[in-house]
Design brief:
Layout lengths: L2 H15 L13 E7 L6 E10 L6 E5 L10 H9 L1 E6 L2 E10 L1 H14 L2 H9 L7 E6 L1
Antiparallel strand pairs: 1-2, 1-4, 2-3, 3-6, 4-5, 5-6
């Protein structure tokens, strides 16, 4: 197991033990567990991530492929885009979602709002400036 796997396993366990709430650097932030299948390995994966809820539609959320400002997108991003669907655990619910990518001005506005609420995202964008634009995905309940 890699250190990232260990980190994720700890967050996943805490999320499930506390009805979708976690502490540490994510305390008070909305966190979701996204279930996806590796596009190369075929293995089932679970990735914890912060999200931005859609104000107009409680069945829609946005996730950000920041990878903490790394120069490459996270593997889960490619898995979700390739599959076009996933399952999520949000609070105490688990349900299927469709996956879409948000682009252009809408993407920029959503990312700016996430960075306003959680300034770490602005730091990630600075780290990736000129290298990649951090993707934003929309997850909608099926």
């Amino acid at each position: 197991m890699s250190s990232t796997d260990d980190w994720n396993a700890t967050i996943i366990a805490e999320f499930r033990a506390n009805e979708g709430r976690v502490g540490g650097p994510f305390e008070g932030a909305p966190v979701v567990l996204v279930h996806h299948r590796g596009r190369k390995t075929g293995r089932d994966r679970v990735s914890p991530m912060m999200y931005l809820p859609e104000e107009e539609d409680p069945d829609t959320i946005y996730v950000f492929a920041s990878k903490a400002g790394a120069p490459t997108n996270p593997d889960w991003y490619y898995n979700l885009v390739t599959a076009g669907e996933a399952e999520i655990e949000r609070g105490t619910e688990q349900y299927a979602v469709t996956v879409g990518e948000v682009a252009g001005e809408e993407r920029d506005l959503l990312f700016a709002e996430q960075a306003r609420r959680y300034p770490g995202f602005a730091d990630y964008a600075e780290k990736t400036a000129g290298i990649r634009t951090i993707p934003v995905l929309v997850l909608r309940r099926r």
